[in-house]
Amino acid sequence: MTIRDVPDQHRYEIHVSDELAGFVQYRRREGLIAFIHTEIDARFEGQGLASQLIAAVLGEARSAGVAVLPFCPFVNGYISRHPEYVDLVPEDFRAEFGL
């Protein structure tokens, strides 16, 4: 499994055996990344790939010191279930996302 940023398509992709298994779309601004949509191909559903993808991209955001806006319901739900990532969402926006 590999995860890579594809900036020209505004998304991170997750590949399994060199096959695209899914992605999370984003929009970037200086110091901020907004996650818009997460999608996993039906052939790869139920394997936890979306969670692995989101954990990786949130970890990368933390390492880069970038704030996160979880517009994507899956990303928002992931952060809700893993409160160690709530601090990535700017405090002024947490209530808007139910965090």
From TrEMBL:
InterPro entries: Acyl_CoA_acyltransferase (IPR016181), Gcn5-rel_NAT (IPR045057), GNAT_YJDJ (IPR031165). PROSITE patterns: GNAT_YJDJ. It comes from the Bacteria. Residues 4-90 form the N-acetyltransferase domain. PANTHER family: BSR4717 PROTEIN, PROTEIN NATD1. This is N-acetyltransferase. The lineage of its organism: Bacteria, Bacillati, Actinomycetota, Thermoleophilia, Solirubrobacterales.
